[in-house]
Each structure stands twice: as structure tokens, then as C-alpha cells.
Amino acid sequence: MKHKKAQRFGMVIDLDKCTGCGSCMVACMAENNVPFRKDESNKRLSITWMHVYRLTNGKSFPDTDICYLPRPCMQCAGQHEGHSPCVSVCPAIATDYSMETGIVSQIYTRCFGCRYCMASCPYHARYFNWWDPIWPDGMEKYLSPNVSPRMRGVVEKCSFCFHRYQLAKEKAYMEGRRDIKENEYQTACTQVCPANAITFGDLNNPNHAVYNMVEPDHKHGGRPKNPHAFRLLERLGTNPKVYYLSSRDWVRKAGDNHLKNEKKVKEPVHHG
User: What is the distance of C-alpha 223 from the center of its chain?
Assistant: First the structure.
């Protein structure tokens, strides 16, 4: 089957598989040269492009249930393609939406640290560099040559390991191909997950696993046919490209900040 639609890279995370081991967080930091502090106790100053949250159903033992929720950047498309919350408020065009990939970029040399994007992001997926990166002795030799360390005074975030996409495109070009294969572009967190809880690919490509996991039902506003699929804070209409799967109803409700005795709100349209 030939795929002609524009690429729309996204992620599906199975919360019933995630064990909260944190491998995705470690791989993300190593792959993208994410700096860390000697004292990480102040979480407002720490930088974690991928962050794993611990959720609970709030019930007492023996009815207690726990869920671990990895949260990368949602790569929001917005209610109109390209109108992501962060992109819409940036006065320097330091963050931009790619119509080619559907990935929200962060251009560090344009950023002057106003942090409007951080204020507009409902997922707390953006981080401000309060300091220049300081690496333990010898660690600078092991930094990835494909990702530039960020300087003090700029905002950074998960990029879906975009440098890997660029490398895959270069490889395809050298081999005389226009399209890249599914396994040629995978994020670090996807590859390292020991539970295979993270799946990455093109949400517009029927040949990719992510498409089949959350295949849209166009008769019902583009919602996934999979009843266990949901996205975080869908009621805001940010149209994120990170989907979650869970067979537990309380987890799906928590994903949209559902309150007890709350009436069901109108579901937003999913844009493909």
C-alpha cells in the first residue's frame, strides 16, 4: 500500500504495560544531552523531557490501584493544524510546527527566555535553563554529537528525537529513496522500554503500528476505534499526538482530569 498523506509522527503508550522503571527517562537524557543538577530535589529547576508520573485510584487497600504515566511533549497540533498552544504565543518564532512531520520544534538560538510557551503548555512539558550545563568530570566525552547542549536562558523540551529523523532521511536519500521505513526512525524511549509499552510511528500511515493501535473512526469525529485509547486533557482541544491505552476506566478518566459526579463533556474532534 502506497502512503501519500503528510507524515504525522506520534506515540502510543500502553499504561497497562508500563512498570514505572524510568528507563525512558534515562534514555531520553542520554540521547538528548539533557543536563542535570547535583541536587535534583527542587523539581521546579530540574529538566526532564520525559517524565513518569505515578497515579493512584485513591482507594484504600486492598482496592488500591497504581498506574505509571510517561509524559513526553505531546507535539500538539491545536484545533487548527499548526496552532499549538506554545507555537501560538511565541513572539520570536523560536518554537514552530512542522507540516512535514507534525513535530513541534524548539529553535534555541531564537529563544530569549520569555517563557510564554511554558505558561501556555497545559502538560508542563517545557523547561527553562536556569544554568549553563555542568557535566561530571569525563562525562562531556560521552555526550551525543547529534544534539547541541542548550545554553542558560532558553527553554527546551522533548523533540521526538528529531535528529534521528534527520539521520534517517539522509540515509534514505543516499539510497535513492524518498520515504523512510518505520524502523529507521524510532525515539530513544521507544527502543529502550523493557516492557514494550511505547510504540512510535506515523499516525497517518496505515502500514505503521501506531496507526492500527489508534485507528481513527471518521464516523465519530475521528476518535480512535480502540475503546481503551485516550489522550491527556482532550477537552482542551490541543489535539496531542501522544495516545495512551488503558483497560482501566479510572485511568482514562484521570487522563482528562475527570471529577467525581462530573457530567460528561462534549468530546472534541480528532484531526487526522
Answer: 19
- What is the rounded distance in angstroms from the CA atom of residue 4 to the CA atom of residue 205? 8
227 inside domain? yes
pLDDT digits (tens, 9 = 90+) for 35-58: 887 777 777 778 999 999 999 998
Q: What is the mean pLDDT of residues 193-212?
A: 96
Q: How far apart are the first and last CA of the chain?
A: 19
The pLDDT value recorded for residue 263 is 66
Q: Give me Rg for the CA atoms of the chain.
A: 19
Q: Which residues lie closer than 8 Å to 268 by C-beta, 6 or more apart?
A: 79, 221, 234, 235, 237, 239
CB atoms within 10 A of CB 172: 16
Domain containing residue 78: CATH number: 3.30.70.20
Whether 267 maps to a domain, the answer reads no
Q: What is the number of domains present in the chain?
A: 1
Distance separating alpha carbons of residues 222 and 271, to the nearest angstrom: 7
Q: What is the pLDDT of residues 75-111, one digit of tens each?
A: 999 988 889 999 999 999 999 999 999 999 999 999 9
Show the domain range for 46. Answer: 9-255
Is position 105 within any domain? yes
Beta strands of the chain (E only): which ranges? 9-14, 51-56, 66-71, 95-97, 104-106, 126-128, 155-157, 198-202, 216-217, 223-224, 229-230, 242-245
Cα–Cα distance for residue pair 36/24, rounded to 1 Å: 16
- Quick one: which of 135, 149, 157 has its CA closest to 33? 149
Using pLDDT thresholds of 50, 70 and 90, give the confidence band for residue 243.
Answer: very high
In a domain, 262, yes or no: no
| Number of Cβ within a 10 Å radius of residue 203 | 23
